[in-house]
Amino acid sequence: MKSVDDFRLRLGSQELVPIIVGGMGVDISTSALSLEAARLGGIGHISDAMVPTVTDRRFNTKYVKNKLQQYKFNVENSDKSVVKFDLGLLAEATALHVGKTMEAKRGPGMIFINCMEKLTMNSPKETLRVRLKAALDAGIDGITLAAGLHLGSFALMEDHPRFRDAKLGIIVSSLRALQLFLKKSARTGRLPDYVVVEGPLAGGHLGFGMDWAQYDLATIMAEIRAWLQAEQLDIPLVAAGGVFTGSDAVGFRKWVQVPCRWLPASP
């Protein structure tokens, strides 16, 4: 009988355990948890969601307190359009979160960061650009583009010296979403290094409506795999959502992303 240990996947020159700890925001996927996944030879994610808050917790910085003081006049106002994120401080907080994590990394695995497109921060394009580039500057092994179609995200970082060096992936919930991403990103001359396919049982920001029960991960995976083969595109697929046991993981015979299973873990 096959087990998870019978499978490996190569990203560039690196061979890894086929399990990814997904990137849950607001410090649920902690730095300590991602470091343990990397130590054991897999991939751990940290998240860039609310990264100033996370750095305040971890390093006793004052990003949130200072921003609250700056916009204290608008606290009672439901219109938050005047509230802006200082791009320099956002880059600083991201660099601190990522940099300290990478400094502590041990073992043969990798550490990625989950970057959410829908984290608009009252300036969607510019804040996303800053978060992506700051993570690359700080030495992150890879970036998983999440919570959105990310049709312009490759273009936002294509001028960065690590654009073709770092591992870059995208989360999709349908073949159509992947096709749109590849079409819009084609001019950068770079394919994603991996694609995470989320079924309707995955947590987080999904591309399903009230008809979610009509879909299943295995069918979506098969559709995307068949299309990639027809297009002669060799992009590894990662199954995510509804993977509860080792037997479930083996059933996909590829990588799996399993975030919520680790919520009770001590790291």
Describe this structure in words.
The structure is a single chain. The protein has 267 residues and is α/β, with parallel strands linked by helices. The protein has a single domain (4-262), classed as TIM Barrel. Helices cover 35% and strands 16% of the residues. The chain has nine helices and ten strands. The strands form two sheets. Strands 3-4-5-6-7-8-9-10 form an eight-stranded parallel barrel, surrounded by four helices. Helix 9 (246-252) links the parallel strand 9 (237-240) and strand 10 (255-257). The longest helix has 17 residues, at 87-103. The radius of gyration is 18 Å and the shape is globular. Residues 259-267 have low confidence and may be disordered.
